[in-house]
Amino acid sequence: MKPPICSSASTGGVTIATIKRSRIKELLAKEQRQFVSEHPKSKALYKRAEPVLLRGVPMNWMALWAGDFPIFAKEGKGDRIIDVDGYEYIDFCLGDTGSMFGHSPKAVVDAVTEQVRKGITMMLPTEDSIWVGEELKRRFKLPQWQIVMTATDANRFSIRLAREATRRTKILCINGCYHGSVDETIATLDDRGRVIPRSGNKGAPVPPHMTTKVVEFNDIPAVEKALRPRDVACFMLEPAMTNHGLILPDKGYLDAVRRLTRKYGTFLLIDETHTLSCGTGGYTKAYGLDPDIITMGKPLASGIPVAAYGISLKVLEGVINSLQFDDDEMGIGGTLSGNALAVAAMKATLQKVYTEENFRKMMPLAERFYDGIDDVIRSRKLPWCVTRLGIRIEYMFMPKRPRNGSQVDAAEDPDLDQLMHLMALNRGVLLTPFHMMALISPDTTKKDVDRHTEIFTESVEAIIR
Ligand SMILES: Cc1ncc(COP(=O)(O)O)c(C=O)c1O
């Protein structure tokens, strides 16, 4: 029987199908031709954007979709996106979690519309913010909260508080982690185990080994070695890795992390931004974690920029002892953070869409999505594996489930990744760029899930032919 929230499977250990490189290249060229011929309006917009927008997009990530150029969206509603060329897509990317509860849910649109008329940013708190603080405390158990704009901000500000409270400078993170554009975390391990900038780390303020220690996920002895000198302010951790493949923690890993962080006086910071997929209290509630700091963002206000972080009394005490709260230069803040519109959108999301009722609908569909992929992998003996974390599902091009980021690096296959994304897109399904990841929304239907399974099967058949 499957556990309720996580499932993972692989064809490790059995005879596997072979996939020819030449076939991948041939199909990729064909799919690219189809993509270009079917999206003349997106292409024209991209050409127009290139001279004025860096990489032809308002945010550099958007250039990384499969295809010669990004499709330009016209509108999104529920689990559907329509592009400027008139194609409708079943959206399983859902804004890489930002729109995990569907595009423009009615309850949030209504609350936002009302608040827009009553003031957007007043640099004063509104009553909604208290409801939001109380609700976050109820769900995640930490007593003190702040509302910010992005999960990156939540992480950056939390690191500052952890440093201030512990009077330590270093942070510990995981090889292959992603916590937003947080300088300290854009680091990796080289083949001799040294901390170096991750590829793509542009303009780092200082070499990352000065601020950061890095360990592989699921490696407890490495955590102890890193914490032993007692110079680490916080261990920043996704409880399951979601940005470098989907990697579940080994049994006992998170308990051991908690024990060691306490032993060495390091705060445990759990980044729930993506693991909110586990349920209404994220991984923390689903698996009874007890962190010192929790950060989160993306879907909290249904895609309107809002994030939050909560801290324990222990962190608070450390901060109060060393910070003057009447100082305005704390290195923490943002003029628009916690604005009236943001907290109204957050209240509506928490009250009406990020609910137990919606999770009861979404979870069985996530299992169905997982089962569809799992059946194909097993029946065709593909050297691939699939993992589920609540309403998040990801398949990877490796026969055995990974236990850490280096194992994912070793199995990377950019051509196959592009091909699977493009085959899905050309047949009306959007998967999250950069990895083979899907999210289920409250608007997703069985039919949508089965359509993905059909396309996945068709794509696999074409590749292994
Ligand atoms: C786990 C995690 N934390 C933080 C972030 C940063 O979120 P944002 O880009 O909204 O600041 C991300 C983004 O993907 C993330 O995956």
Would you kindly provide a brief summary of this structure?
The protein has 465 residues and is α/β, with parallel strands linked by helices.
Task: Explain what you see.
The structure is a single chain. Helix content is 39%, strand content 16%. It has 465 residues and is α/β, with parallel strands linked by helices. A hairpin with a 2-residue loop joins strand 14 (385-389) and strand 15. Helix 1 packs across helix 13, helix 3 (106-118) packs antiparallel against helix 10 and helix 11 runs parallel beside helix 14 (446-464). The longest helix is centred in the C-terminal third of the chain and has 24 residues, at 356-379. It starts with 5 loop residues before the first strand and ends with a helix. The model has no long low-confidence stretch (mean pLDDT 94). Bound molecules: pyridoxal-5'-phosphate. Pyridoxal-5'-phosphate binds next to helix 5.
